[in-house]
């Protein structure tokens, strides 16, 4: 394995410090994952199952919405429904007309207008099915909370493809609910065909995962398993060729100068910019990866004393935060995208007198974040957190980390599907080359792990076949 940086994990970076107040553990990239069989299996095989921590799936995801028709809620925080349809009665982020429009659209009693003859954006699809209000108050913040994206640019069939599929999946009507019922049946069938191994850590649907010392535990465990001789840090791939005999020739820039490594198979999981440059000699279609845009996002972690918090839904003075976090719809005019309530999600992330918050700011609709100084970003985040969660007289919090990701999350925009289809055709012509990475696998941490596990099986098969062919040739 070769990696440009001096540590493994890519954008999965977990940090900790101990100071006079106690210990703080935080994330500078992703904060959690939805558990999948591939993650719990990998954790089991690496011997880190006991490090897995699972957050209660019922912790609410809040949306901040003040004024214009929403019912009142403590601190203007509205919990998104987790139990359908039960939670819908108390769900007052939407007005009654908004709820009725969404409900009738979802069950197909308001027939959605036909799909347009071009790739639809998320805004177009959702508005067609569920109405404008659901888009602005629920889906707009959701898109921030997954892609830091622009719902006018993201293509529904690529960015939210599982939901997009529901449109054609239903047996009894055009609504998404009809499709969802069939999808639930498919999921149940898939589960019964591939039951989890009883030795793997079990999890319930809706729970969120991490590791006791943060997400980076997983890539660190992989690199320990491989051992130092097979993990080459500080190796920046600059070109990839192939010898006439079939061996790949990878050339790296390192601190000690240029190094060349030869291999029978190569899995290239670098971000689009690098893959586009390095792979295009062997796969000309990789040039199109230049078109994939990844906006800047900054992550800011600040700890505040528990006494600083307002009265919040589900909170108490000894435990003011109870939830996953809150998202900020663009209509609210608050610059930050949302805040993860890290210490409410996972245990021991900070000393008992504190709460730990991770705020993301920037994204496709706020590209200017890349040009701001860290001090200005932190100042903005502090003001935004104060507005939603803190008492007016709360003292400044303890800043733990601010990291600007200039190229954060690939946007699955219109045309993305076609770029990937071309890439797949090109890749298919170069035996032994495997292209991965979050521009292709899905952006979720779990998607990346799942794709990696499946690709590893293919590579193993390829090397086995290759070994047999060579042995035959040599005999
Ligand atoms: C701020 C942020 C928050 C997120 N939050 C979540 C979340 O809460 N939950 C979730 O599921 N997902 C989240 N994600 C998404 C998820 O973390 C990523 O999609 C996933 O981790 C990407 O993995 P990757 O291996 O494809 O890419 P990366 O992690 O970017 O890895 C690519 C690697 O390639 C290396 N590299 C680059 N160029 C070269 C070269 N020339 N030679 C050698 N190596 C090179 C890089 O150094 C890097 O290590 C978040 C992402 C970001 C940025
Ligand atoms: C506000 C910015 C961001 C926050 N998280 C991310 C960004 C850009 C990145 C991200 N978050 C999730 C995923 C994985 C998606 C998946 O398919 O599993 C990614 C790439 C998970 C996620 N986060 C939120 C939701 C609703 C989801 C989907 C799955 C789930 O419900 O768990 C909500 C959320 N994200 C952020 C905040 C502040 C937030 C608040 C409720 C931050």
From TrEMBL:
Stored InterPro entries: Amino_oxidase, FAD/NAD-bd_sf, Protoporphyrinogen_oxidase, Zeta_carotene_desat/Oxidored
First-listed, main subcellular location of the protein, grouped into a coarse class: mitochondrion
Note on how the cofactor is bound: Binds 1 FAD per subunit.
Record-listed E.C. numbers: 1.3.3.4
Gene Ontology MF term list: oxygen-dependent protoporphyrinogen oxidase activity
GO cellular component, one term: chloroplast
Keyword Chloroplast part of the UniProt annotation: yes
Catalysed reactions, as listed in the record: protoporphyrinogen IX + 3 O2 = protoporphyrin IX + 3 H2O2
Pathway(s) where this gene product acts: Porphyrin-containing compound metabolism; protoporphyrin-IX biosynthesis; protoporphyrin-IX from protoporphyrinogen-IX: step 1/1
GO biological process: protoporphyrinogen IX biosynthetic process
Ranges of residues in domain Amine oxidase: 3-459
Keywords on record: Chloroplast, FAD, Flavoprotein, Heme biosynthesis, Oxidoreductase, Plastid, Porphyrin biosynthesis, Transit peptide
Compartments reported by the entry: Mitochondrion inner membrane; Plastid, Chloroplast
Cofactor(s) needed: FAD
Pfam family, one: Amino_oxidase
PANTHER family for the chain: PROTOPORPHYRINOGEN OXIDASE (PTHR42923:SF3)
Family: Belongs to the protoporphyrinogen/coproporphyrinogen oxidase family. Protoporphyrinogen oxidase subfamily.
Its biological purpose: Catalyzes the 6-electron oxidation of protoporphyrinogen-IX to form protoporphyrin-IX.
Protein name per UniProt: Protoporphyrinogen oxidase
């Amino acid at each position: 394995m070769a990696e440009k940086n001096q540590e493994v994990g890519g954008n999965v970076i977990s940090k900790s410090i101990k100071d006079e107040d106690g210990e703080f553990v935080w994330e500078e990239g992703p904060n959690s994952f939805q558990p999948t069989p591939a993650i719990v299996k990998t954790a089991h095989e690496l011997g880190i199952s006991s490090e897995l921590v699972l957050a209660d799936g019922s912790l609410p995801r809040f949306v901040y919405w003040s004024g214009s028709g929403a019912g009142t809620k403590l601190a203007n925080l509205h919990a998104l429904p987790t139990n359908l349809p039960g939670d819908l009665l108390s769900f007052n982020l939407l007005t009654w007309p908004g709820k009725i429009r969404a409900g009738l659209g979802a069950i197909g009693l308001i027939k959605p207008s036909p799909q347009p003859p071009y790739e639809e954006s998320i805004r177009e699809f959702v508005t067609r099915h569920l109405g404008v209000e659901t888009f602005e108050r629920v889906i707009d913040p959701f898109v921030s909370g997954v892609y830091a994206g622009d719902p006018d640019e993201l293509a529904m069939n690529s960015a939210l493809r599982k939901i997009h599929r529901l449109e054609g999946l239903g047996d009894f009507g055009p609504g998404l609910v009809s499709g969802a019922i069939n999808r639930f049946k498919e999921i149940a069938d898939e589960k019964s065909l591939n039951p989890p191994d009883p030795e793997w850590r079990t999890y319930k649907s809706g729970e969120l995962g991490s590791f006791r010392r943060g997400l980076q535990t997983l890539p660190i465990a992989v690199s320990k398993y491989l051992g130092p001789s097979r993990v080459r840090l500080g190796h920046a791939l600059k070109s990839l060729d192939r010898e006439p005999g079939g061996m790949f020739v990878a050339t790296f820039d390192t601190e000690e100068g240029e190094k060349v490594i030869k291999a029978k198979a190569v899995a290239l999981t670098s971000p689009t910019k690098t893959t586009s440059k390095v792979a295009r000699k062997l796969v000309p279609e990789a040039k199109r990866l230049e078109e994939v845009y990844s906006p800047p996002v900054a992550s800011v972690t600040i700890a505040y004393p528990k006494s600083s918090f307002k009265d919040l839904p589900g909170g108490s003075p000894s435990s003011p935060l109870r939830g996953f976090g809150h998202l900020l719809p663009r209509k609210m005019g608050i610059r930050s995208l949302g805040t993860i309530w890290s210490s409410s999600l996972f245990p021991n992330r900070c000393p008992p007198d504190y709460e730990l918050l991770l705020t993301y700011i920037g994204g496709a609709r706020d590209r200017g974040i890349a040009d701001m100084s860290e001090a200005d970003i932190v100042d903005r985040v502090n003001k935004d957190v104060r507005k939603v969660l803190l008492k007016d007289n709360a003292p400044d919090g303890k800043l733990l980390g601010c990291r600007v990701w200039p190229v954060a999350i690939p946007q699955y925009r219109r045309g993305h599907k076609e770029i990937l289809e071309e890439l797949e055709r090109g890749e298919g012509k170069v035996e032994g080359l495997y292209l991965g990475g979050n521009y292709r696998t899905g952006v979720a941490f779990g998607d990346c792990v799942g794709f990696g596990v499946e690709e590893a099986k293919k590579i193993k098969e390829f090397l086995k076949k290759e070994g047999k062919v060579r042995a035959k040739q040599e005999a």
